[in-house]
């Protein structure tokens, strides 16, 4: 789906993020996500890991932070960062969309500064909806898009509804609907085909 940027461009971006984080620490942004001890957090499009250490501290020893990115250098940087800081609750996922996580297994998804870069946002939002718990939160920060565009793109997916607008982030809740269940098609007289077959011993 998406392709990783050239290595040089990624290194330059990482350097810019370091400067950004010094001037504008990420703490106030992450605080709005409502991460609790024991939570399972998915940092989708984690980049060099700007939010990973703070998220790992918030979930504690009983929680997990999954750091996903499509760029191999991002995965390497996060693994190096976790090693240096002895963050034993951090797991990396090298992917552009599929997380490999079970359904309804994540408490908080961080979608920070990445929505505008997605070539297939519907596929990504579908995957995030799949892994997010029914009472989970998708925390979104997107400085490259206006509020109307952000809300429109999320609403158009029909998978999320905005629950709260913070100073730095939008909090979205997953729209509940039956998963992995295909409803039987109705027959011409309005009776389900499945019911008709069952009544006739098929």
Q: How would you describe the overall organization of this protein?
A:
The protein is an alpha/beta fold and 202 residues long. The protein has one domain (36-179): Vaccinia Virus protein VP39 (Rossmann fold, 3-Layer(aba) Sandwich), CATH 3.40.50. The chain contains seven helices and seven strands; from the N terminus they run ααβαβαββαβαββα. The chain has helices at 7-23, 27-31, 52-59, 72-85, 121-131, 147-156, 193-199, and strands at 40-44, 64-69, 90-94, 106-112, 132-141, 160-165, 170-174. A seven-stranded mixed β-sheet has the order 3-2-1-4-5-7-6, with helices on both faces. Strand 2, helix 4 and strand 3 (90-94) form a beta-alpha-beta unit. The longest helix has 17 residues, at 7-23. It starts with 6 loop residues before the first helix and ends with a helix.
Give the topology, please:
Blueprint (H helix, E strand, L loop, with lengths): L6 H17 L3 H5 L8 E5 L7 H8 L4 E6 L2 H14 L4 E5 L11 E7 L8 H11 E10 L5 H10 L3 E6 L4 E5 L18 H7 L3
**Rounded Rg:** 20 Å
User: What's the oligomerization state?
Assistant: single chain
Structural class: alpha/beta
The tally of helices reads: 7
Total strands:
7
Tell me, what's the shape? Answer: globular
């Amino acid at each position: 789906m998406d392709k990783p940027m050239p290595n040089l461009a990624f290194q330059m971006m990482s350097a810019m993020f370091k400067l950004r984080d010094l001037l504008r620490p990420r703490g106030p942004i992450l605080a709005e996500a409502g991460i609790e001890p024991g939570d399972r957090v998915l940092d989708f499009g984690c980049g060099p890991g700007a939010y990973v250490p703070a998220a790992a501290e918030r979930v504690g020893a009983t929680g997990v932070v999954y750091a996903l990115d499509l760029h191999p250098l991002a995965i390497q940087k996060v693994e190096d960062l976790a090693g240096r800081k002895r963050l034993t609750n951090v797991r990396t996922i090298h992917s552009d969309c599929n997380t490999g996580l079970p359904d309804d297994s994540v408490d908080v998804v961080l979608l920070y500064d990445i929505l505008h870069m997605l070539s297939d946002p519907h596929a990504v939002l579908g995957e995030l909806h799949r892994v997010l718990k029914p009472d989970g939160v998708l925390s979104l920060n997107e400085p490259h898009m206006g509020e109307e565009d952000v809300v429109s793109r999320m609403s158009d997916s029909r998978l999320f509804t905005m629950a709260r607008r913070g100073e730095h982030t939008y909090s979205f809740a997953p729209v509940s609907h039956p998963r992995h269940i295909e409803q039987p098609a109705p027959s011409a007289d309005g009776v389900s085909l499945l019911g008709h077959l069952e009544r006739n011993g098929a």
